[in-house]
Structures are given as structure tokens and as C-alpha cells.
Amino acid sequence: xxxxxxxxxxxxxxxESLIRTPVQIEKLILxxxxxxxxxxxxxxxxxxxxxxxxxxxxxxxxxxxALGGVTTITARAVDPDGEGPESIQILDDIxxxxxxxxxxxxxxxxxxxxxxxxxxVAAEAAEHLIFLAWTDGLFSDxxxxxxIDNRADPINYLDQDSDGLPLGLETLWTTGEIGAGNFxxxxxxxxxxxxxxxxxxQGETDVDLxxxxxxx
Length: 216
Fold this sequence. Notes:
It is a single chain. With 216 residues, the chain is an alpha+beta fold. The protein has 2 domains: 2-45; 59-215, no CATH class. Helix content is 21%, strand content 33%. The strands form 2 sheets. Strands 1, 2, 3, 5, 6, 8 and 9 form a 7-stranded antiparallel beta sheet that branches. A 4-stranded mixed beta sheet has the order 4-11-10-7, with no helix packed on it. A hairpin with a 4-residue loop joins strand 5 and strand 6 (115-116). The radius of gyration is 28 Å and the shape is elongated. It starts with a helix and ends with a strand.
């Protein structure tokens, strides 16, 4: 803005001796106003657009479809006010049958804006990765306790990005014997850093939720 102030000062100095009537003063004011509007416009154009904004997710729905059957187990988490003060709430426990295989689909929504965030994440698969963890022993396949503490631990991912790296909106699970524990879902936004070894500590966190899970 300092440059504009100097310019205005010199304009007044240059035309001071020539200005004699109110009409001339008005014309000079119009000229200065025009110069100021050009300056503001140019500065607005220089502001870069926001990139990689964190998704607003109000609804997370886990759907466990039993293979070879018609049973679908649904567990939801809802944040009714989006970016407002209320925190997201787990509405349902996950209750699965022992020794059964399930196809898990994760749906993400912004119900405030009426948007499917699932579609956005799928379209930007190269920038997203879903990490998963659970109480050891709840599943026989994959075994272990998930890849949040160790990226190399097995997850049966069914989807991938254009580079062949996993995404995590769809996974496959086989339960173990009767037991109880928890199931954690972490969606990370990793533009430019997602790789075969990128971990849960890298990038922005879009979702981090823990459900109670029972196999009974």
C-alpha cells in the first residue's frame, strides 16, 4: 500500500498548481479512485486458491456384508453440526458372528452440505489412505492387530489408487472365536507423501474413530 500512498502524494503535488475549481478536484479524485481499484484488484488476483483443504465429514458408516448371506451389520458415527462445537458420536457397536467372512465398506458423508465424501476420497485415492486397528484375536484373517502401530502389518485391502497402493474404503475380514474389544478407523490425507511405507503419523487426519466390537 505504501507505493500507492507515494503515488497519490505525487499526483496531488503535480496537479496542485493546476487545480482551480471543484470540477477539477472531482476529476482528480476519480483518477485516484481508479488507480486504487486497479491496485486492489491486482492484489486479489495474487492470492493463491486454498489447496488440500481438510474434508468436512459428519457421517461415517461401516457396513459389514456377510459373504454367502444377506446379513449386513451397520455401525455409524455422526457429527450433526459439522465444524460446530459438537464432537462426532459413535451410535452403534459392531456385533459380528464368529468364524464368518465379511466385506467391509466404509461410507463418508457431509450431511450438512449434502455431499458424498466417499466419492471425493475415491477420486483422490492417491492422496488418501485408511489405517485400521483392532483388538488382537477378534479376527483370524487378517491376524494381528492392524497397521496403525506398524504399517507393514496385514490388511486385506480390496481397493487401490492409480499407483497400486491401498485405499481402504473396502476391505475383507474373517472373524475369530467369541470375544470383545475395539475397532479403530483412521483416514489420513497424504497428498504428495503417500507411499508403500507412509504411516499414520504423516499427513492430515480426516477421521479417527474407535468402535466397540463384539464377536458373539
